[in-house]
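User: tokens in, sequence out, please.
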């Protein structure tokens, strides 16, 4: 198990607070990219956990990538949504409930290729790790 750097944890907590407290007016972009807040339920704690992630949009669909910078294991938020796929999503001021579904096979490969072409760092993350980095569709719930 990999321990998360306490400074990174503090930065993420501050980023989430800024994003939520300004209704997405601050913290909703980073380095020119949109940032999405993803709220999962902790698979051990049962408590809500919110993290900022870079989304990928294709048509009306929203995807997130469980890269963790190419680390050898999946991020905690991905493990959480595997245990409970009902998640909260916030993009800017817009908030909705979604069902998180891991995309697999040729569709995952196609999406990951498109994502890597738009954001080359994701291609580098896949090269760094032996695991297949998951692509997760956030299917909007009514």
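Assistant: Sequence out:
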């Amino acid at each position: 198990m990999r321990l998360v750097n306490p400074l990174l944890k503090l930065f993420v907590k501050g980023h989430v607070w800024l994003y939520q407290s300004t209704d997405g007016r601050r913290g909703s972009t980073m380095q020119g990219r949109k940032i999405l807040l993803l709220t999962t339920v902790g698979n051990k704690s049962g408590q809500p956990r919110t993290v900022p992630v870079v989304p990928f949009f294709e048509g009306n669909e929203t995807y997130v990538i469980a890269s963790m910078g190419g680390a050898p294991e999946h991020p905690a938020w991905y493990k959480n949504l595997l245990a409970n796929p009902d998640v909260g999503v916030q993009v800017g001021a817009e908030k909705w409930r979604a069902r998180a579904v891991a995309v697999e096979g040729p569709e995952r490969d196609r999406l990951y290729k498109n994502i890597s072409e738009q954001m080359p760092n994701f291609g580098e993350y896949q090269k760094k790790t032996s695991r297949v980095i998951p692509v997760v569709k956030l299917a909007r719930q009514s």
